[in-house]
Structures are given as C-alpha cells and as structure tokens.
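Reopening: Box C/D snoRNA protein 1 still failing for me.
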Amino acid sequence: CETCSKEEAKYRCPRCLKYSCSLLCVKKHKLALSCNGVRDKTAFVSVNEFTDLNLLSDYRFLEDVGRTADAAARHLAMHSSTTKRHLFSLRNKAQKCNIDLRTLPIGFTKRRENSTTFNSTENKFYWHLKLVFPHCHAEYTLKRVPDDKTLADILKPYIDPVESDPVVCQRLKIYTASPHSDVRILMKIENRRQNSVRYNELDASRSLLDNLKGKVIIEYPTLFVVLKTLKNDMVVLGQ
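Support: Ran it again with your exact input. Result attached.
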C-alpha cells in the first residue's frame, strides 16, 4: 500500500495508479492528492502500449462526446437571444480593455461554471477566477473578483501567514512558510501547440485588469501559484 506502507495492496486507483489496501487508505490518498478516482479517458498512451481496449475506450469516449454535443445543441439556452447578447456584450467590453475574451459553446464545463459579469455602472469586470497551487495539489474557485483588485490582495486569504484561513493555511503551508519573494503567479498562454506550452508571469503588485491586458482568456482566468525555489516543468515565455 502506497498510503500506509503496512498492508498488502488490494486496489489500484484508475486515475493516478496508486496502490491501496483498504477503503480508508483509498480515501486518504484521494484527499492528499486531490484525486477523484475516475480514469482519465484522454490520458496519453504510446503506440507501443496501445491495445484493443484503448481503441474501444476511445470509441466509447467519442460516442459520449457526440451525445453530449447533441444534448447541448438542443438546450434552450443555446438559442436564447438574451444569452447571445450577454456574451457578445461581455466580449465587446473585454476587447475595449485590450483583453481577447473567448467563450465556449453551451455544454462545456467552463461555460457552465463561468460567472464573470460586467457592471456598467461601475465600469468594472467582476471575474470568475480559479487559483491553482500545484505544489500542494490544491485549487480554489473565486467568484465576483473585481478587476481593480491586486493579485497580492487576491492571494492574501490563501498564503498570507496572518490573514489566511487556518484550514487553508495548513493545506498550503509550503506557500505560507516561504517568503513572498519566492511566490510566482503564472498564467498559461492560449493558442500554442500542445508540445510547446508556455506561461506568462504576472505582476502581483498590479491589478487583475492590468495583468490580463493583451492576453487571450478562454471563459475565465486560471492562475497558477508556484514557488521559484521548487523545480517544476512550467516554462515561462522567453526562458
């Protein structure tokens, strides 16, 4: 068992392939690694390891995609003029702020999740935002984040030793124990080849709006909070 290292392993997680001996250890490994236990149907399989089972799995996956796309096309919101006007207005407002905001069709998870709005009275975006802390395998979703809020203030409830929530602080202790100068905020650059993933480094002292200017955003921003002292495979553009 890769969790307790005491008993003989009986189960193997379909998602991360970790071995476990009991239901208790299964639950512990899911909590520690933020693993949902569901097999990744789109995980890479090399040609040498590709079998008839993989082919059948891909075929079923494509059938599921077809059914989901068909159901989405029949969804009433897909044909709602109000929804289309709202999305057009949102993209137009973002374009005026030099942000290339792109939306996905109805049925996509990010489209359903997105709660981003624009307040015409305040002339301000309230963003749906996702924070990912890869060193702790943790992620958090924020709603109605004003665009004039600095990234440093956005992160305070998570990695600030004084202002962060005790439960969150304990989970992200590797971040809270590190000096602020070691914290880096990255955002993935969209529209690049799969084998050439790069990230933009953002300025924590500047507002969310300033950091998003000149960038492509698909539905809502996802920010990766990393530590420069820890080795990772996230390559910043230009490095």
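The chain has a mean pLDDT of 86. If you still see a failure, please send the error message rather than a screenshot.
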